[in-house]
């Protein structure tokens, strides 16, 4: 089923400058996989080398944080919107 | 710039953080307003900061309401150089501008701005030009 994945502004350059991408998926994991397969340059900014979502990358389905649902196994239905929102973190080297 | 320095002094010896709202131009960008935010890393605030995704969404919404873009973030390095750390790099995205102010013994010193490269391997520094601004930035 078709779901919409909103591409955050900093990553649009890696997704054909599109604000959103529509993909066919049954779960959040499938949707993100479809997007990063279509736009491979996105992958390193969302996933770390071990294939896990980077710790500061948060994913929402219609405003619900998937960490409180079934994470990447969270099911999606036609018309759902998936948002990718970073936490901003950093700090001095000590 | 003055407001970033003031925020860094206020929170010293803890790190301050906030959002940069402005306009992304061709080859340059302008910070038109700031949105100071609370450092949510209360376990290690002297050398870490965190802006929650809820605060990020609030900053995006605020930028839209002001007809601006969320173009980056600022934070302070208390008693440490104004250079991005490995930890900064691991937690950054390209495109955003990351301004860092070094606050030494409670006094703001160097201020730098950085952008992460596409391959995430390193940052490039950005020149900062300060202009008189009605908002006192």
Give the helices and strands, then pairings.
The complex is a heterodimer of chains A (94) and B (137).
Chain A: E1 2-6, E2 20-24, H1 28-38, H2 43-46, E3 57-61, E4 64-65, E5 81-86, E6 88-90
Parallel strand pairs in A: 1-5
Antiparallel strand pairs in A: 1-2, 3-4, 3-5
Chain B: H1 2-11, E1 17-24, E2 29-37, E3 49-51, H2 53-65, E4 69-78, H3 86-90, E5 97-104, E6 107-116, E7 123-126
Parallel strand pairs in B: 4-5
Antiparallel strand pairs in B: 1-2, 1-4, 5-6, 6-7
CATH superfamily of chain A: Beta-grasp domain
How many structural domains are formed by the residues of chain A?
1
So what's the oligomer here? heterodimer
Helix percentage of chain A: 10-25%
**CA radius of gyration of chain A:** 13 Å
Task: Give a verbal description of the structure.
The complex is a heterodimer of chains A (94) and B (137). Chain A is an alpha+beta fold and 94 residues long. Chain A is 16% helix and 28% strand. Chain A has helices at 28-38, 43-46, and strands at residues 2-6, 20-24, 57-61, 64-65, 81-86, 88-90. In chain A, strands 2-1-5-3-4 form a five-stranded mixed β-sheet, with helices on one face. The N and C termini of chain A lie far apart (48 Å). Chain B has 137 residues and is an alpha+beta fold. Chain B has one domain (2-122): Cytidine Deaminase, domain 2, CATH 3.40.140. Helices cover 20% and strands 38% of the residues of chain B. A six-stranded mixed β-sheet of chain B has the order 2-1-4-5-6-7. In chain B, β6 (107-116) and β7 form a beta hairpin. Classes of the chains: A alpha+beta (94), B alpha+beta (137). Chains A and B meet through β6 of A and β3, α2, β4 and α3 of B. β6 (88-90) of chain A pairs antiparallel with β3 (49-51) of chain B, so a sheet runs across the interface.
